[in-house]
Amino acid sequence: MTKFVIRRLLQTIPVLLGVSILVFSLMYLIPGDPAQIMAGEGASPQTVEQIREKLGLNEPAPVQYLKYMKNVVQGDLGNSVRSNRPVMDEIKARFWTTVQLSFYATILAVFLGLIAGIISAVRHYTWSDISIMIVALFGLSMPNFWFGLMLIQWFAIGPDWLPDFLKMRASGWGDDWRQLILPVITLGTGGAAIIARMTRASMLEVIGQDYIRTARAKGMGERVVVYRHALKNALIPVITVVGLEFGGFLGGAVLTESIFAINGMGRLTIDAIRTRDFPIVQGTVLIISFLFVFVNLLVDISYRLLNKRIDLN
Amino acid sequence: METVLLEVRDLRTSFFTDDGEVKAVDGVSFALPLGKTLGIVGESGSGKSITALSILKLIADNGKIIGGEIHYKGNDLLTYSDKQMRDIRGNAISMIFQEPMTSLNPVFTVGQQISESIMKHQNLSKKAALVKSVELLKLVGIPSPDKRIKQYPYELSGGMRQRVMIAMALACNPEILIADEPTTALDVTIQAQILRLIRELQMRLGMSVIMITHDLGVVAETCDYVAVMYAGQVVEYSDVVTLFQKPKHPYTIGLMNSLPRHDVEVEKLESIKGNVPNPKEMPTGCRFAPRCPAATDLCRREMPALMKDVEGNDVRCWIYSEKWEGESEVIVYGEKRIAESRGTETILSD
């Protein structure tokens, strides 16, 4: 197992390098002169030249990349062009907010999705299955921004009898953890629907397998058959989806963060893109990509824990 | 007189599909004497596996046992509750399956899978159950069992997995072992090993065995009694010697003639023409009539019952009844049969 983890860790290195090259190339992929864009229209040639100098844009691209990476390894992602503060500090302030939001949304999605999926599979083609799948279809099709707005409409602005913590505050995101409830529901619902459908499909496939019949022939009760023999096998494809969902939440929390006025990574990125603050964009994309790779590493490790046969080769 | 351990009477199991009812097992009866082996032979789709699964009440959701009785030690298993059945399964009656490759759970070790049923049925601790699992692996001839116990099914070959399945089935000293085509998926050399193992264990532990197979060779080698099934019904039921020496039902004769034999030189093996009837469109008369070279109007009109011939063996064929209206000598697949109403003896042709 230790060998497996080490090997898997080593394999992430080329991926991370690739990601960093892509992120670095962002500057060049956008049409126009980055220095000119950052300086804004009507800036004097001197200012543009200054920015170019500051970002080291005069040097050949490979040299720039190596310098950039040298700094990244030391934890320096450069300075924001707008606020002039270190990108690392800007991200730090928002990183945990987004991770928290994504983490709780994933927990909610896994919890609801697994329960709904298992019930659906065990009672397939009954009314409970059909209703769960219809609800899941809604959950899947509802756009986040609409669902979030509806939740605000129903719970946050609406009736007086609602507890205070659910209500939106003028100040937006506060310190009260209970304010997470609505955003987490908004973000997690779609994921719950996907996980429910995935769990159902996977469970149905597993329940038809010969070894499930063997378990029944051994005299095992339905509960043991479903939760021990079937679920452990059915979880393998579900975990992939959970990993992807979590990664997706990290990068895709933008809408939810905007709706609920949460100052997270998503909003930071969007604002940076709007104001052409390239160092911030590079930094956030890099951090989120690294996290994504890390989550996938965890997914692979849990595969291996579930099924010893899964190997990298 | 032999003690009968398990008796199946007029068992009927149907599947209910969108296209209507499919009678997979339609009035099957047989008895399993203590310590003996009963073979159930038939083509794919003849209902032999469903018969076996019906005994343990392990029919899929869309299937249902709609009639009959399954007497085990004087009690009808069909009246048992789910919980009572769970105490029988893997305990008094256990089963091994055709596909050793897929019948073991890939995510649990061999030890976990064997000890699971020991823990359930014998209330042993995990540790004690594992010790017993090692003994069982030794019993079924698996080398270095204490190592194997920690392995996962994918680390074992097909033959080894079938041995593990047998160990699992024997875990709680069952009185009846149902083996559903236990050797079909295995290499020929391994087949012989597994059959020998089952026979040895049967003698040692005094089990009764129901051997389900499509292979008459396996029947000849392992069984004491044989029920031949065709299209969900038993068409012939007798002891194994009689079955091979004097097969009666045209279907059984056809099966025998389609086997290569080392004592008779034949240029071309015979085959039974036609196909097994579609279960949704069963013939009204004898189900074998459309393929039977001796079929008469009576056969196509009325379904024969399973009747006793002069020797006391069961056969489902009009030829051996009083009602037979055809020739007194009937040639079936080159073998001559004297119709029972005209003579009392059934003879073999050359």
From TrEMBL, chain A:
Residues 95-299 form the ABC transmembrane type-1 domain. This is ABC transporter permease. It comes from the Bacteria. The keyword Transmembrane applies. PROSITE patterns: ABC_TM1. Belongs to the binding-protein-dependent transport system permease family. It is a multi-pass membrane protein. Pfam families: BPD_transp_1, BPD_transp_1_N. Its main location: membrane. PANTHER family: DIPEPTIDE TRANSPORT SYSTEM PERMEASE PROTEIN DPPB-RELATED (PTHR43163). Coiled coil: none annotated. It is found in: Cell membrane. Keywords: Cell membrane, Membrane, Transmembrane, Transmembrane helix, Transport. The chain crosses the membrane at residues 12-30, 101-122, 134-157, 177-196, 234-260, 280-299.
From TrEMBL, chain B:
SMART domains: AAA (SM00382). GO terms for molecular function: ATP binding. Its main location: membrane. It is a peripheral membrane protein. InterPro entries: AAA+_ATPase, ABC_Ni/Peptide_Import, ABC_transporter-like_ATP-bd, ABC_transporter-like_CS, Oligopep_ABC_C, P-loop_NTPase. It is found in: Cell membrane. It comes from the Bacteria. The keyword Coiled coil does not apply. Residues 6-256 form the ABC transporter domain. Keywords: ATP-binding, Cell membrane, Membrane, Nucleotide-binding, Transport. Belongs to the ABC transporter superfamily. NCBIfam families: oligo_HPY. This is ABC transporter ATP-binding protein. It comes from Sporosarcina highlanderae.
